[in-house]
# Entry
Amino acid sequence: MTDDNEAELRAQLARLQQEHRDLDAAISALQDAPGSDLLQVQRLKKRKLWLRDRIAFIEDQITPDIIA
# Structure
């Protein structure tokens, strides 16, 4: 992996992690609000799960394989 690729992956990882944190805050706020839209909460949770999977994939790409 080149340094440019790794830098690009790290930047993408940072953006995804920030979006994940933002969604967490949004979900908490929606759940605490009276009369919250349950469908919207479900959609946000689904997006958050997708982000978690994508973050894990990128972290695996960045981490070098260790041959034992």
